[in-house]
Amino acid sequence: MSATQAAVTHFLPLAADTFDKNKVTPGVLGFLVFAALAVGVWALMKSMNRHMGRVDFEEAPATAKAAAPAPDQPKA
Questions:
Q1: CA separation, residue 19 to residues 6, 9, 31 (Å)
Q2: Which among 27, 52, 50, 29 has a CA at the least distance from the CA of 37?
Q3: Distance CA 24, CA 1 (A)
Q4: 26 Cβ neighbours under 8 A, 6+ residues apart
Q5: What is the C-alpha to C-alpha distance for residues 5 and 51, in angstroms, rounded to an integer?
Q6: Cβ–Cβ under 8 Å, residues 27 and 34
Q7: What predicted TM-score, i.e. pTM, was given to this entire model?
Q8: ∠35-23-19 over CA atoms, to 5°?
Q9: Taking the chain, what is the end-to-end CA distance rounded to the nearest angstrom?
Q10: Domain extents in the chain
Q11: pLDDT digits 0-9 by tens, 19-68
């Protein structure tokens, strides 16, 4: 029997009267799932930032014909 098991079996009777059997807690598995999701979101955000850095946002220069208003539209 390991030291951890001995400590748990020693303190379990002390917690028996305060332990609620109907209460559900996430425990270690819940923490591991949450941590994995957090690491996944962090990796996706890092990848998105890297890809957004490669995007060229410069627009092509407008030509004179496209910049002039159409003849049927009133001038403002």
A1: 19, 14, 21
A2: 29
A3: 27
A4: 34
A5: 49
A6: no
A7: 0.47
A8: 110
A9: 88
A10: 21-50
A11: 677 887 889 999 999 999 999 999 999 999 999 998 887 887 777 555 55
